[in-house]
Every structure is written in C-alpha cells, then in structure tokens.
Specification:
Distance between the termini: 42 Å
Largest sheet: 3 strands, mixed
Order of helices and strands: EEHHEEEHEHHHHEE
Radius of gyration: 22 Å
Strand content: 25-35%
Number of helices: 7
C-alpha cells in the first residue's frame, strides 16, 4: 500500500510538528469500476451489486428511521441523534428538539481480516511538502483562481486539496484564511455538509 507522510498542527516533544500517515491521495474507485472488476474476477453480473446496495439502503433506511441498529457482516449501522439546542433538564426535551444527525457506521473486524489477506507491505510515496507549498502564497492564489474558473465560479476544500497537493486540513485552513482580513478574497457559504468558496 502506498502511503504519504504529512505534518499535524500538534507539536512533539522536540518542538517540531508531529506527523501522520495516510494512503496515497488520488486513489479512488467508483461503484461502476468496482462492478466491472467483480464482473471480470468473480462472475458477478454487472449491476447486481448496485441493485443489492439499492435494496439494502431502501430496507435499512426504514428500520433506521424507526431507531433500529442494523448488524451486518461488514459492520453495524445506527441512527445518530442530537438536540437542536442545549438542554440540562431531561424533562424539558420535546420531540421538536430532537434532530437526525446522520448514520453512524462501525466497521466489523471482517475488514481487517480481508485487507490483511491482500496487504503486501507499505511503500512511501514522496508527496509534496505541505510547508513548502504553503510558503508560495502567490502560486497558491493562482491555483485557487484557476480552480474556481474550472468549476464554474466556486471551489471546495476537496477541490483545492487535489489541485494544490495540500492535505484536506491545510487546504481548508488556507481557504478560510482568504475569507478573513480587511480585503478578503473569498466568500464562504455552507452547502449541505461542506462549504463552497466564491471570489469576492
């Protein structure tokens, strides 16, 4: 497995930033690609996996909406709830205060066993140095503007991360910096679970 090394904002005992590892960026497989792979290697007819997923989501969605936790071979799924406001008295919680935050997924140990079966060691990928990239603000700004132009007037942290070579954390931090100051470059607007950035 190819992996990358990146710094964190946390300082270690020697005063330098601690680092973390992650799989090499850019490695992504779509459902269509996975289905094609299964069709070639496991005699599975193309489309069967998508149909199975569709049926699972439809059936599981109903039970999740009723409050069930669903146990499967690949892990468990459960509804995640929260309160719309801070409440300290349990008796004051009303139905209208409860919100659905999404679905919690806890992977099973089956994943570890399956990955270990195929894993053939780790190999370091020489990814760009984050601090070096961040030092060239003029180049980063040009990458940001090019990205906005390519994506019809807006950019997300994920888009900027892929275009600049920054980690998602650093890309988001840099975009947020451009929304501050006396003459901000970007406007940050929430869209679903993420934010989009547009030029001012």
């Amino acid at each position: 497995m190819w992996y990358e090394v990146h710094p964190t904002p946390v300082k270690g005992e020697d005063g330098k930033n601690l680092v973390y590892v992650r799989p090499k960026s850019g490695l992504k497989m779509t459902m269509k690609q996975l289905e094609s792979y299964c069709e070639r290697n496991y005699s599975l007819r193309y489309g069967e996996m998508s149909r199975a997923f569709d049926m699972f989501i439809r059936a599981a969605g109903w039970f999740l909406a009723e409050g069930y936790r669903i146990e499967t071979p690949i892990g468990s799924f459960a509804p995640k709830l929260s309160l719309a406001k801070q409440i300290t008295d349990p008796d004051m919680v009303k139905d209208r205060d409860v919100r659905l935050e999404g679905v919690e997924y806890n992977p099973s140990k089956l994943w570890d066993k399956e990955i270990d079966k195929w894993l053939d060691g780790f190999r370091r990928w020489q990814n760009p140095d984050t601090q070096e990239i961040l030092a060239d603000k003029e180049k980063l700004e040009q990458i940001m503007r090019d990205c906005i132009q390519q994506h019809h007037g807006y950019i997300t942290a994920g888009m900027f991360s892929r275009a600049s070579g920054l980690t998602l954390y650093s890309a988001r931090k840099q975009l947020n910096e451009w929304t501050k100051g006396d003459v901000p470059l970007l406007l940050k607007t929430p869209r679903g679970k993420e934010h989009i950035y547009t030029e001012l």
